[in-house]
Amino acid sequence: MHTMSTKNKKWLFIIFALLAIVMTACSQLASEGTAVSQLTQNSDGYTDITVDHLADILKDKDFTFVNVHIPYAGDIPQTDLSIPFDQIDANLSQLPADRDAPIVLYCRSGNMSTQAAETLVNMGYTNIMEVDGGMNAWQAAGNKLVKNQ
């Protein structure tokens, strides 16, 4: 019976470690184009997304897109609704009745949309996303706002 030498065991370990790294990297690359529903929620129960990710998911938009900033300062294109962040709970009738439906919130910098996201999560919504940096980050990435009001 042949036993494996210590040197061969080290090489085998290195090969398995590299294989694990490659598999992890490939799965992360595959998930960058992931559907909205497969993103990971933070500890507050909603998902933070970047403006780059937002631009990507706007291509095949399958979510309700809500500007919660007050006062009105413009919209990211394809915005569906404008609801003041501090009145989100009083305007649930404007949102999808299905509390599992994807909803993306944004404001000017991220503060108001974070508060609105927390409110909706506390009301039982399960698929809330919040755009990190809001309209400021959107414009800093070279994108334009539109004026709808």
Compose a concise summary of this entry:
With 149 residues, the protein is an alpha/beta fold.
N- and C-termini, Cα separation: 81 Å
Spatially, the strands of the biggest sheet line up as 1-5-4-2-3
The best one-word shape is elongated
Q: Helix coverage percent of residues?
A: 25-40%
The quaternary structure here is single chain
The SSE string, one letter per element, is HEHEEEHEH
Based on DSSP secondary structure assignment, what is the total number of beta strands? 5
- Give the biggest sheet: 5 strands, parallel
Structural class: alpha/beta
Radius of gyration: 21 Å
Count of runs of 4 or more consecutive helical residues: 4
Low-confidence stretches: 27-38
Task: Estimate what percentage of residues fall within beta strands.
Answer: 5-15%
> Averaged pLDDT, please?
86
How are the SSEs ordered, and which strands pair?
Elements: H1 6-31, E1 47-49, H2 51-58, E2 64-67, E3 81-82, E4 103-106, H3 111-122, E5 128-131, H4 134-140
Parallel strand pairs: 1-5, 2-3, 2-4, 4-5
